[in-house]
Amino acid sequence: MVNTLLSQTRSNYPGVSFVDAAGPATFVTYICAILLRDTGATLSTFNAFLLLQGVEPLSLRLERHAENTKKVVKYLVNYPQVEKVNHPSLPAHPNHALYTKYFPNGGASIFTFEIKGGQEEDRRFMDNLKLFSLLANVANVKDFAIHPPPFPTLPGRIAGIGH
After folding, report:
1. What is the CA radius of gyration of the chain?
2. Which of 15, 22, 49, 63 has the greatest number of C-beta atoms within 10 Å?
3. pTM of the predicted model as reported, rounded to 2 decimal places
4. Which of 7-21, 43-57, 71-85, 108-122 ranks highest by mean pLDDT?
């Protein structure tokens, strides 16, 4: 089937097959000319422009992410209603040495924290959030908050036989 696709002529390239036109680079040419075009992986002019607009200030944005995260983490560590903060910039974090070695200027902008008071306080906190989306979408540029659902501990899991 692949040989047929590559050796037949196509209506938008009359009289020419990919094998005749590209020789050893037939498959790569087919991917670029047909598959990328059909799936949208080739950027339009406007999308390329938007991408370039976002790439130029990317390093500055990432620096600000790291700076702001450090400030928020430092604030939460000293906040009386917070029980624990998890971020590699904190000396107590198990990967702190690796973080300082590989990210001397900072780098991680994702952190977690636990609120004192249990599930009821957690729920009250989540219900009162105003600026955060309550969803899980790590590939987004927006701030979000996720509360893990409480799962009962199953006896099989405790014994090591459950999944």
Report:
1. 26
2. 22
3. 0.59
4. 71-85
